[in-house]
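ok trying again, last paste got cut off:
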Amino acid sequence: MKNTPTTPDAADRPVRWVERFPVARDRPILGGVATVAIVAAAWALRIVADPLLPPGFPYVTFFPAVIVTSFVFGVRLGAVSAIICGLLAWFFFIPPIHAFIITQQAGIALAFYVFVVATDLSLVHWMQTANRQLARERETNRALADTRELLFRELQHRVSNNLQVAAALLSMQKRQLADPGAKAALNEASARLALIGRISRQLYDPSGAAQPVVPFLAELCRDVVEASGRSDIALDVAGDVDLRLQPDAAVPTALIVAEAVANAVEHGFAAERAGRIEIMVGRGPDGSLTILVQDDGHGLPADFRADNTTSLGLQIATTLARGQSGSFRLHSDTGTTATLSLPAHLLATED
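nice, full thing came through this time. structure:
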């Protein structure tokens, strides 16, 4: 069974740096000490800069202190910082200095300060609230995605198991038959159901992403050769590793290639004869997907005609190829070559 990707736990997921604020929410003493330190630094900086500043800038260093405190430690400590900074600016830098006297000039300056810090605190509070809401929604979406993947995995597993059970039932049923032809038909049907079950496992992808053709076919064809019980047949799958197949086209394409490989194993090599099967994946001159299945076996009979074949496997492959607006052909040279051509629109477009 193909391993399925696991989803990282919430604790392992990276947290956006902005989601860490406000910090020290569970340690108010640390936040209070840090707030006092920021206010003291703003006050000291304002005193140092006072000789360099023209009159009328009492809050020039206090506004940043309020914003930083509210952003880092939360709006409550930001409001405490705003009150302390306002009192310090009023007492030390708004005439008459060193006295809490409300004059017309002081009243205007204080009103301006209150308006600005109230706006700053409101914006920071709104931003942090929205950010927390986004973080909760993102976690909810992650949980839904995990649930979807789990359900998809379970559905895929059950479908595959049901196909395997159906294949086993057909295999049991053939034992009750005496007619060799009926036994062979049930045996082929059982093998194909089991193959579809394996394909469904390999196609597992809850996102519905396009399948990479070469590794997908390599794993599938190895399963087909192993299921035949032949260990003396070498298999090589090569080609353009960047080609990806649309999800809707993956199952019929896999069935066609599997039929070609199974046909090569069954008819191309006698039980005592070793051999090699090569699969090449690439683009045709018109951009179509071309898959060649070549073997060095006995080759086709001299009187072989594809349109008159009684092989159910070849009929299935031909029908599936036509159903995708493609073609499936067989010809002999040294061995047999099966050529599957599919239109370019079945390939995933590059981002």
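cool. The longest strand covers residues 275-283. Residues 28 and 277 are 72 Å apart (CA to CA).
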